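As a warm-up, study this chain.
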Amino acid sequence: MKRLSLLINFLLIGVLLAACAQPTASPTPTEPRVLRVITHSSFSLSEDVIRAFEQEHHATVQFIKGGDTGTLLNQVILSKDNPPADVLYGIDNTFLSRALAADLFVPYTPKALQAIPQEFQLDPQHRVVPVDFGDVCLNYDKAYFAEHKLEVPQSLADLTRPEYQGLLVIEDPSTSSPGLAFLLTTIATFGEEGYQGFWQALKANDVLIVNDWDTAYYTEFSGGAYSEGARPLVVSYATSPAAEVYFSEGKLTTPPTGAVIAPGTCFRQIEFAGILKNGQNRDLAEAFIEALLGQRFQEDIPLQMWVYPVLPEASLPPVFAEHGVIAQAPARLDPQAIEQNRERWIETWRSIMVP
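Now compare it with the structure written out below.
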């Protein structure tokens, strides 16, 4: 019996040792969480920048294109109780007050915001944070003005002079973001009492109105490398000349166009991002906002969306450093005033300009 008992004990010990020797099963890896970011249709970031964020946070970033800024904002307002995304990117200062009044965002103050100049921080509650900025300005065809020995206009009032008759094409402010920015520039420059008279004079000077920037720049403007029009003045962006050089892929060393950045002739668009209420993955959303203000994202922005980063320490690509210009005294309007008067200003403009 003792031998049998010992044998059984040895067998039990062997089973226990064998069990201990089995490797512990590894836990099943979790699937990456999905961060949804809704943006305007012009949004773009490099794949490697997005991939680095995804790897760092074990996440997948899903971008949802929501159309132009106005359409994007309408979509988010209508679905605010069950938002289509966790983060909104692309509200600018022309729609900022409307977005804030709709109570769409969760306040969040990223650490990186400390490095961003106060001039860009238009929401003191930090429901949204600034990410980039760009200036909407007059662009001109250098060759035309040189051949005709004509001075480039240096004020909005110059555009109503006889020598500039039939030279300007602009975008409709009711259908185009740069068109709206130009209308706001005229209101900031001439005031409520004077801007209507300016537009009446501009109409008498044979200004051409088109629906969108593509038509204005590529179809009606004469200055761009791929432009086919006859008008040497267009409402575009201060970065458009630099883009001409970049997209020529070495064919151009200097831009064939220039930007007018004289005081009061440009309008500065500042774009913001914010965390949407009732969204998912709040911690991921905060990390994404933080990343947007970080150097990696900020230095990627210029060549992706042809705007400037708000982070002063962000290095600019050579084409920006060599050919980019920034308006030193852009026209300014309070975002709340824009929100309260936008539709009235547009309707007044239409009553003057549209037969």
